[in-house]
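Case 412 in the screening queue. Each case pairs one protein sequence with one candidate compound; here the compound is adenosine-5'-diphosphate. For every case the pipeline is the same: read the inputs, emit a complex structure as tokens, and attach any notable structural observations.

Predict complex for case 412.
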Amino acid sequence: MIEDQIQNDSLANLIFANSSEGLLITNGNGKIRYANPKVLSMFGYEYDQLVGQPIEILVPRNIHSKHIRLREGFEKSPSNRPMGVGSHLLGQHFNGKTFPVEVSLSPFVHKGDKYVLSFVTDISIRKLQEEKLKNTFNELDKSSTELKNLNRDLEAKVNERTLELADSIKKLQKSEKELHDALVREKEVNALKSKFISTASHEFRTPMATILSSLSLIESYQGSPVKQEKHFLRIRKSVDYLLKILKDLLTIEKTETSDGRFETEDISINDIVHDVINDLIPVYNKPNQKININYKENIVFISNEYYLRNVLINIIGNALKFSGSDGVIDITLSKVANEIIIKVQDDGIGIPEHEQKNIWERFYRGNNTTQTDGTGLGLYIAKKNTEILKGSISFESTVNKGTIFIIKLPSL
Ligand code: ADP
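Case 412 output:
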């Protein structure tokens, strides 16, 4: 018997008895023929309780039949291999408790009989550690997911805050810009006011002085109505000029505060031009100045008379003002498609080329105008009022040859 042989062979006995691995020998029918002390302590049996029993005694009851089938299969084609690869093998202790084992099978033949030597290891502790490790991994995985979620939330919050911050910065920049613009406007208004005061006091001085001197001369010319008449005329001209300055300033005020809404009506451009000229002649017309008004027809279009008059008074007034006593002023009225074109041409002093870019500015006056009264507001008013009427204004000028202003207005 194989068990006796082991017992009797002192070396084999020594090896089997001291092996830290459980060693079992079963015969061809799956009966236990030998179990070393390690197997006995592992499964809680005495040697005699185990030897002679089918190997299934060490296998949980519910898989006995499966084990028998597997064992019979192994006996048909035995080979050295680990048992139950990929599945969790369980051993059953004498006290009924199961525990995880690892088994490796080595078939051999002894004196014509088939045997299987099984190496059995109790892997409870390893499994426990594996389980612990798995739990630790799971917890780690959970923490890492939580961390990821936290990170995502944090990123979302950071993004949200960044957007809020960008928005606040934008608002801040906007208010800063508004504040800056308001300051610039305030500065402009202040500069305008002081410019107005200096211009007004300067421009008022000459007509006021004229009025005063003419008044005292009128007194001294008692009894000479012809001489008096000349001074009445000078007083009238001075007053008209003072009124023109005041009117310019009021017009600017009204133009600047316009909300772009105004009434429109049918307007005869020819009538208005005639009217404006009649108003201007007493103020600016010189002895032999000639004014030609050219048109083919009476042009009627829809616009606003107040703004149109502001444009014409200043442009035609300048033509009279800046041309000589025998100058010729040509005013041409025409209508092309839905556009009214007014051309005002004079043969006067012209505008120096290097100053042409500045003349639309408030208070700007050409260097060659020192002989002529003015505030430098006329062209600014003309341009603003043309724009209110959705039109355009431009000019061409040559010094000492003359100037032509072209005003284009749509029918509104
Ligand atoms: P003002 O007539 O009071 O000087 P304006 O604003 O009407 O102011 O004109 C600005 C400047 O443009 C004038 O001072 C002058 O230099 C130039 N200017 C305007 N119209 C004419 C013109 N028809 N001929 C020559 N210069 C002109």
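Case 412 observations:
- The mean pLDDT is 88.
- The chain is about 50% helix and 20% strand.
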